[in-house]
Design a protein that fits this description.
The protein is mainly beta and 243 residues long. Helix content is 10%, strand content 43%. The longest helix is centred in the first third of the chain and has 10 residues, at 3-12.
Length: 243
């Protein structure tokens, strides 16, 4: 199977990718992948800017195990006035995807490291880690489905390829606050969940287009907050610098 086939499987699978970075293997974000010309681009939201490039990106395939993708030229843009845990700044992170490294074939060449990061973003300690540490039992949300639907439970079509399965969750758009979209959990009989690492999860419209990425939420009010993604991209350095 050609490496690009794995990339298409990544988009079509019900597993979200995990953007693995930070102090320990459990650190990471959810995210989405879209096509721009002949390139595949990954987007996520991250609390705190890591030094240099994120370490790796990957997801767990039910049959083949962990599939790991190197990132090409990651790019960070601060989301103004949005603070994460411990008052850390919040960033939109974008990167083109390189061909995947399949653990049993290419694990030895992976740039997969633990990084202890100081308060100013400096690397305090760095050591190698095993690709096997990316087992879904050790990485949050790998069992979650891909994304959120702000109108209804849908199957998102991608050209002539199969479907992306979205999470069985309805979100209701309720306006904007401080430049962020507000989405309320539409089903009051469902428990509201804001799981660790959900930042960057895509929110889709009724046409299955990504319209927002989750930046956080309020469990008491049952509200998710999402980035006005395409407006932010058009007004940010992404547009001016050709990303």
């Amino acid at each position: 199977m050609h490496a690009n086939d794995y990339l298409w499987e990544l988009i079509l699978a019900s597993f979200p990718f995990r953007w693995i970075v930070g102090k320990k293997v459990a650190a990471g974000s959810t995210g989405c992948v879209f096509r721009h010309g002949n390139r595949l681009i990954a987007l996520t939201v991250q609390y705190g800017k890591p030094p240099g490039a994120p370490v790796i990106y990957g997801y767990h395939h039910a049959l083949r195990g962990t599939i790991i993708y190197p990132l090409l030229d990651p790019y960070f843009v601060e989301i103004p006035d949005v603070l994460g845990p411990d008052n850390r700044k919040t960033y939109l992170v974008c990167s083109e995807l390189m061909d995947p490294a399949i653990p049993e074939e290419n694990a030895a060449g992976l740039d997969a490291r633990y990084q202890e990061v100081g308060p100013e973003g400096d690397i305090l300690e760095e050591r190698n880690r095993k690709p096997g540490d990316l087992h879904p039992g050790r990485v949050p949300n790998l069992a979650d489905r891909y994304g959120f639907s702000c109108f209804r439970d849908i199957l998102a079509k991608l050209d002539d390829y199969d479907h992306i399965t979205t999470v069985e969750r309805n979100l209701e758009f309720t306006g904007k606050s401080h430049g962020l979209f507000r989405f309320r959990a539409a089903r009051k009989d469902e428990p509201f969940q804001l799981p660790s690492g959900c930042q960057g999860a895509p929110i889709l419209d009724e046409d299955a287009r990504v319209v927002s990425l989750i930046t956080g939420g309020d469990s008491k009010k049952r509200i998710y907050y999402g980035l006005d993604l395409w407006r932010f991209l058009s007004e940010s350095q992404f547009a001016s610098e050709g990303h």
